[in-house]
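Posted in: Protein Modeling Q&A

I'm a second-year student putting together a small comparison for a lab meeting, and my supervisor asked me to include a predicted structure for Adenylate kinase isoenzyme 6 homolog. I've never done this before, so apologies if this is the wrong subforum. The sequence is pasted below exactly as I got it from our records. If anyone can share the structure token output, I'd also love a short note on what stands out.
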Amino acid sequence: MQENASRSLPVIVITGTPGTGKTTHAQLLVQQSPIPLQHINVNELVKEKMLHDGFDEEWQTYVVDEDKVVDELEPLVSAGGGQILDWHTCDAFPERWIDLVVVLQCNHTQLWDRLEARGYPLKKIQENNEAEIMNVVLEEAREAYAEEIVVPLQSESTEDLESNVSRIVQWIEAWQKNQVLDSGS
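Accepted answer (user: helix_wrangler)
Welcome! Here is the predicted structure, written out as tokens:
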């Protein structure tokens, strides 16, 4: 945690099963944040920078090389923070990087509909739905990071979205105050 104190801006992970609203939350947070934050959609970064070992046709997804992802992000995070890392998993990121992990959750029936609307193959919908029911992403976050920085939030409606972003903005404001207090001591 000591390395976090040297950063001027926080690093926030917004994670959750595909279809829970990570990208929408991150985009709205960038707009409403009292400090400048850079939204990094890790899936897009993987495609853009070829941080994968090919495409899995059966699952219709890239086989991500997590080491390459971490190596790509390290200079950004080390340069002072200010990132929102948007990805369906979070345990690949070193604990020293992260100040807050938001795990978005959604009713599995609603999630099924969202993934179906995206045109996901049935097998992929079933796997993601099962992961949501079993709280896989939340458990991974709790195993990888300190309990006090992992925050599960419901993401089923526009009201949830607005409330969640407002809560994260409040967290950022508190984080800023703590940084000022810590630097003054």
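A couple of things worth pointing out for your meeting: Residues 158-184 form the longest helix (27 residues). The chain has eight helices and seven strands.
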